[in-house]
Amino acid sequence: MKSPLAGRRILGSPRQRVRLALIILSFILYPITFAYLSCPIITEAAGLGIVAGGLVIFILLFLSSLVVARLWCGWLCPSGGLQELMRSLSDPRIRTTRLDWLKYLVFLGIFGSIGYAIWSAGGLSSIDLFYRTENGISLLAAGGIAAFLGPVIMILAFTLIFGRRGFCHTFCPFAPMLILGRKIRNLFRWPALGLSADSGHCIDCGVCSAGCPMSLDVNGMVRKDEMEQTECILCGECADTCPKGVISYVWKTKEKREVS
Fold first, then answer.
1. Is residue 259 a part of any domain in this protein?
2. pTM of the predicted model, to two decimals?
């Protein structure tokens, strides 16, 4: 029988308070930073042969995923910050995972478009890290308000329709890129950040699963000793809410088989 704790979200740990402060701050700063994370703006610049700041950010995020997987999603992503704020108003678990494949099509479409834009321009010939910003601030550039509101409305819609982190599950083009980086790392197995669990001390209270921002069956992952999961964002909420301290961050040199 599940513990009464299973229905509660416990955010008393200092680490989770820091995480939420960082990711919500990231969303608050989104009016300044969205041009550096905007796929249409990166594609537009690429079509002119320009390396925009966002393209550099994308490359850095992919490289980071080779070591820290989807840590960005759990700690610093502005869309994640908006979705965390929504959890304080309504927090239904993800309603379906049957459309999780959609984000891979979005990823292929967007990055295919960027590649085609670079090819059409005859390659990248210049660098403008502040492309489509005014003094580095995204919202002040021409069309900035529309470029800001569009993604925000989309994130809100996906979260309201699909539930907890619905945008991350279904539509985010960053997720497949970071998942790909993790899969490359798992193939070569160099040291990287991950989660580990001591299943022998698990009491099946269900707190870890109930609090997971990605609605994963963390309890089942612990019991199977398979903590590697493509949708895990390494937020550490399961580790910080477990009453027995069963789950922890580890620096992995090898891991069990991956759960898709």
1. no
2. 0.92
